[in-house]
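REQUEST FORM: STRUCTURE PREDICTION
Request ID: SP-0412
Submitted by: Lab K.M.
Chain count: 1
Length (residues): 283
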Amino acid sequence: MTTQVSPLSSPYASMTKRAVIRAVLVAAVIAVSLVVVDLLEVSLRLTFDKPPAPLTKPLPMLKDELGNPVRYRAAGPDENMDPEVVEVLGTKDYLLRNYRDLQKKPSELGNKLALNLNYYSMGSATPHVPEVCWAGSGLVEKTEARRRFTVRNVRRKDGTVVDIPMRMVSFYPKHQGDMPDLLPDKAADNKLLNVAYTFEVNGQYVATPKEVISTFWKAENKYAYHTKIEVTIKDAYCDPADAEQIVSDFIREAIPEIEQCLPDARRLNEESSGNPTTLPAAP
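STATUS: Completed
RESULT:
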C-alpha cells in the first residue's frame, strides 16, 4: 500500500511556503515604507527624491568686471576643457576665466588669478578638488601646508553678509613641463603654488567635499545642488598666508556676482514650501 504524501507536508514544500511568506512580508514592509516616506514628505515637507535645480543664468554670463568700483577685470577669453575632461568632471556647467587685479602692477604678486566654477544641478556627482585632480597631473602637495580659513562678512547678492569657509591647498614648485599655463619656468624652492576653494550648497557655504555631501542630502532640503568656487594664484609661487589674503580679497568682490548665476536658494525653498516671500532688493 502506497502512502501519498501531501506536497505541503514535505520539507521542500514547507521551505517554499516559508519563502513565500517571507517574500509577502518583505513586500508588505516595502509598501508600508513607501507610504511612510510619502507621508513624511508631505507632513514634514521633506524631500528624498531631489529634482535638478537649474542655474539662474549660464556661468559664462558672469560679469567680466568685479567690484564697485571695479577691481578685477577678465583677462583674455574663457578657456574650454577637452571633451574627455568634461566627461570626467561630470558637468557641462563650468567656467574657467582669468582675472587681473587692477590695484596691482603686472609684476606684483596676485595680479593674475584663475577662477574655476563647476556647477552640479543634482547630488549625483562627487566634488572634484585640486588635492586629487592636480595630484593626478603630477603635482605634489605639501600636505602640512593645507589650511582652512574664513572670509568674513562677504556681501551676498541680496545684500546680506555671510562668512565663507575655504580650504587652501599648496603644491611644491615644479619646473617647466607640467601645467605650463599655471607655472613659470623657474620658482624658488621655499614658495608654493596655492589654490583655494569653497562650495555653495543649497545656498550655504562649506569648505570640504564631506560637508557638501552631508549638506545637500539633508531630507529637509528639496534640492541637492552645489557649485565649486576655486581660485588659483597664477604665474606666481608664494607663501600660503599671502595667498589667503589675495584669495579673500577676490572672493569678497566675486561672490555677489557669482550668486547672480546660481539658483536662488531662498526662492526655491519658499516655492517648494508654498509660502513665497519678497526678497530684499540687491543694493
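NOTES: Residues 184 and 192 are 12 Å apart (CA to CA).
Reviewed by: T.R.
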